[in-house]
Amino acid sequence: MDDDGAVPIVDAADLSYEAFCAQFMARNRPVIITNVGADWPARVEWCDRSGLRLETLSARYGHALAPVVGKSTKYGDESRDDVAVATYLDWLASGQAEADQLYLKDWHFTRDFPKDRIYTTPKYFADDWLNWWWDEKAAALSATSVGLDDYRFVYLGPRGSFTPLHHDVFQSYSWSINMTGQKEWLLFPPSETPKLLDKFGRVVLSNFQEIDPVQFPRAHTAKHLRVLQPPGAALFVPSGWYHQVTNTATTLSINHNWFNAYNLPLIWAYFQEQLVAVEREIEHCRDGFDSDSDWILHCQLLLRANIGMDFNELCALLEARAAISTAPFDVAQIYQVLGPLRVHPAINSSK
């Protein structure tokens, strides 16, 4: 973010990886990187100057199933159905997708088609521990990544389709590149999050463009950045930045969620925050558990159900990264650094 409050725009030819790390990842600031992915198959083969090559997409991937959501007012509350890609492309061509605000999103394309290299992760975002972890798990099973999870997605939506205000999974980073079309982003620094809460300080606003001043009395004062993202421009969304995204034209984009050493403290803090919330929610049941170990295990199960991962898996991920690091990497030192945030009981007892 520049001194004038705008998101910096930098040509990929002028931005080294080291500069990206120092200026944006380390400072948790957004940036638009232009001239990215011009030679990707997803850009060259799937799109032309007029937009999407619908027939090409339908012929190659029409048999695949992808999640399609209807118009929603709150993040996570969308109606979601798995639909054949060919069917969705027909809706897009006929105008039904725009009329009904039907949005194909969170399509695990790389997971479903691991041999189809439709893009290459830009160097700025390649130090991705989260998706590396899922790839390692797939390799350990001597299988492709089909059927396992990942955080690599294709999005395809008509003009007007949007994603309500939210922060990314685990408070992770995200990056997004449009193959065709344009997105409007509203980005809110973490310092503005309290203003997005309702009058009770509990619920986050869903649509910044439709504010109920009684329910969200401070929302209109929240400072934010507006970004128009054209094709071939990568947007880096930092950890913990709430954002709302609208497609201003029919848009196909590639998106990843990810984290690494730069935002690990924020990831860890988020896990701790969510664990505390779980513990408070079921505190009245604690005496019903046979031991503290049973209590901890149950809390971890609920944590995984709520956010998609628990501390056991997060620590396994960190230890696996430590094992391949070329630099001195002491997992115990990580716990010491992150410990002041709040030491998890299971970790504390084993270290």
UniProtKB/TrEMBL annotation:
SUPFAM superfamilies: Clavaminate synthase-like (SSF51197)
GO molecular function: 2-oxoglutarate-dependent dioxygenase activity; sequence-specific DNA binding
Residues covered by the JmjC domain: 110-275
InterPro entries named in the record: Cupin_8, JmjC_dom, JMJD6_ArgDemeth/LysHydrox
Transmembrane domains' residue ranges: none
UniProt-recorded name of the protein: JmjC domain-containing protein
GO BP annotations, alphabetical order: positive regulation of translational termination
Pfam families, A to Z: Cupin_8
Cellular component terms per the entry's GO annotation: cytoplasm; nucleus
Highest taxon listed in the record's lineage: Eukaryota
Alphabetical list of SMART domains matching this protein: JmjC
